[in-house]
Amino acid sequence: MNSTAIAATGLRKAYGDKKVLDGIDLNIGTGTIFSLLGPNGAGKTTTVNVLTTLLTADGGSARVAGFDIATQTKAVRASIGVTGQFAAVDDLLTGAENLQLMADLHRLKGNERKQIVDSLLDRFELTASADKQASTYSGGMRRKLDLAMTLVTKPRIVFLDEPTTGLDPRSRRTMWEIVRELVNDGVTIFLTTQYLEEADQLADHIAVLDGGRIVAEGTADELKRQVPGSYVQLRFTDLGQLAEAARVLPTATPDNDSLSLQVPGNGGTKTLRALLDRLADHSLEAEEVSIHTPDLDDVFLALTGHATTEAEAQ
To answer: What structural domains and CATH numbers belong to the chain?
Structure first.
């Protein structure tokens, strides 16, 4: 199997004078979760629409599941599933009927049709509600049904465009579990999200899109290490030890209320060992040691000038 699920080079898309995609490159491994982050209007949905052949790029090239998005559109569409931020279910149909309709559209018949519908209802815990109209479903149930409909054809790559927008925390975490199960089955996930915690929890690789360009990419930990602000926190048993430690470490910031000292640093093994050795040289020992690093909110702010995409969405 090809180890690359999605590859793009120099993708460009503009609407009039506005450049939405200004030459982006992607390389997404098979069976991984890739997350595209960016402020509202950064081009996340446009990227999904181009890669799923719903929009034609103005320049550049891309292959999805090994097929060229410009010349092999039918093959691309046969290999992918797409779920957007608004569930595409028919409210007048029951949950089972929605799945049956999707199976009919893809010309699945007889036992195969029934087996797929029943297995998806079971997998998404919708069996008890299978004969109820989708209009009676909660937001989380509708989103699960929408994703189940996407999986009728057993796609190799699934595009999730802000799939948990508007869901409560419990429903969001249920969706996370489902996404992880899909990846365990070998499915590749292309995720756009407004929730930085979602990308932090799920993604194997993250790219930050801003102004039509990818301004940074890597694992969540790699992105966090690009942003200054890491520190080691040392907690002591009394004010005397805290004051002495602050004298030994003049760049640190003491907090008398918590009996703690914040020491700038990345918390790497060598740095931490040297720090503790320096305290030991003065007969000082911290009661507790913890390492604090920037989160994706800090990364996002540093890279785009926006505090968080989630804040903008509310």
So the answer is: 4-89+137-225 (3.40.50.300), 231-292 (3.30.70)
